[in-house]
UniProtKB/TrEMBL annotation:
<dbReference type="GO" id="GO:0046872">
    <property type="term" value="F:metal ion binding"/>
</dbReference>
<feature type="domain" description="Deacetylase sirtuin-type">
    <location>
        <begin position="1"/>
        <end position="280"/>
    </location>
</feature>
<protein>
    <submittedName>
        <fullName>NAD-dependent protein deacetylase of SIR2 family</fullName>
    </submittedName>
</protein>
<dbReference type="InterPro" id="IPR050134">
    <property type="entry name" value="NAD-dep_sirtuin_deacylases"/>
</dbReference>
<feature type="binding site">
    <location>
        <position position="137"/>
    </location>
    <ligand>
        <name>Zn(2+)</name>
    </ligand>
</feature>
<dbReference type="InterPro" id="IPR029035">
    <property type="entry name" value="DHS-like_NAD/FAD-binding_dom"/>
</dbReference>
<dbReference type="GO" id="GO:0070403">
    <property type="term" value="F:NAD+ binding"/>
</dbReference>
<feature type="binding site">
    <location>
        <position position="178"/>
    </location>
    <ligand>
        <name>Zn(2+)</name>
    </ligand>
</feature>
<keyword id="KW-0479">Metal-binding</keyword>
<keyword id="KW-0808">Transferase</keyword>
<dbReference type="InterPro" id="IPR026591">
    <property type="entry name" value="Sirtuin_cat_small_dom_sf"/>
</dbReference>
<dbReference type="GO" id="GO:0017136">
    <property type="term" value="F:histone deacetylase activity, NAD-dependent"/>
</dbReference>
<keyword id="KW-0520">NAD</keyword>
<keyword id="KW-0862">Zinc</keyword>
<dbReference type="InterPro" id="IPR026590">
    <property type="entry name" value="Ssirtuin_cat_dom"/>
</dbReference>
<feature type="binding site">
    <location>
        <position position="141"/>
    </location>
    <ligand>
        <name>Zn(2+)</name>
    </ligand>
</feature>
<feature type="binding site">
    <location>
        <position position="175"/>
    </location>
    <ligand>
        <name>Zn(2+)</name>
    </ligand>
</feature>
Length: 280
């Protein structure tokens, strides 16, 4: 479908819809300036790690070659920037304006909580991959999680500004229960604690049930193939099994659509910010 016709169809579907499910992946936050491949922002935030040969934040996902002082020097700075930094992001504000009169729910793989930080209803949010604002024991010695901010504030207060390492061993985060390693409550492996998100999942299922008889519009934004089962495939599955549902896929790099959705799906092969402006 040609670009202009795809935008026109997506705009019409949005106007016709009362009920909207937003499925957002990393491309949504990238459009708002939280891009894990952004080398310029990385150089500004992490000059000491640039000197060590790193160039972007994505290189630290699963990286185990740092000392504890370096590890928490990076992650405390990163979490402060992503989760506790600037709230207002134009891409999120524009999307909120597009759906302001709709019955809307958000499902996102992002752990930055930028949706509620930009005015979306937190009671209509499901974050199955977790939230940087929660901390858990890496061994899951307890089902309890704790607020992240006190942990990282101690690290930041004890950080050498030149080396960006935490200089006081007592400031390094430890599990309050067993004294072992901790990390943010985000889905890394089987130790991930689901408890903070069980109620979110229940509300999402209830929202889907309550609107089962009404036409659903799914707006999927920036969901690629890093963790496709969380957003991308889930959105396809929901549209496939709801015969009246429609899918608008906004994706600059992976805009392809499944053939079985036929005329109930349209793809906008562009970034989120451009798509939102054209849909407005």
């Amino acid at each position: 479908m040609k670009h202009e016709k795809a935008v026109e169809l997506a705009r019409r579907w949005l106007a016709e819809s009362e009920r909207v499910l937003i499925g957002a992946g990393a491309g949504m936050s990238a459009a708002a300036g939280i891009d894990y491949g952004d080398t310029a922002t990385f150089a500004r935030l992490f000059p000491a790690f640039v000197r060590l040969g790193f160039r972007a934040q994505y290189q630290f996902i699963g990286h185990e070659g740092l000392t504890p002082a370096q590890h928490w020097g990076f992650w405390s700075t990163h979490v402060k920037h992503v989760r506790f930094g600037e709230d207002e992001r134009p891409a999120y504000q524009t999307l909120r304006h597009l759906v302001k009169d709709k019955d809307t729910f958000v499902l996102t793989s992002n752990v930055d909580m930028l949706f509620p930080r930009n005015g979306f209803d937190e009671a209509r949010l499901f974050t199955p991959q977790g939230d940087y604002a929660r901390m858990q024991c890496r061994k899951a010695c307890t089902r309890e999680t704790w607020p992240t901010r006190p942990f990282i504030e101690r690290c930041l207060a004890a950080m050498d500004p030149v080396t960006q390492q935490v200089t006081e061993p007592d400031a390094l985060p430890r599990c309050p229960r067993c004294g072992g390693d901790v990390f943010m409550n985000v889905r890394l492996d089987a130790s991930f604690l689901e408890e903070p998100y069980v109620e979110q999942a229940r509300r999402f299922r209830q929202w889907m049930r309550d609107g089962a008889a009404r036409r659903l519009l799914v707006i999927e934004v920036g969901a690629g193939f890093n963790t496709p089962s969380v957003v991308r495939w889930r959105m396809e599955h929901l549209v496939h099994h709801h015969p009246d549902a429609r899918l608008i896929r906004i994706n600059l790099t992976d805009p392809e659509l499944p053939e079985e959705l036929g005329e109930r799906a349209v793809s906008l092969a562009m970034g989120a910010s451009q798509a939102f402006e054209l849909l407005g």
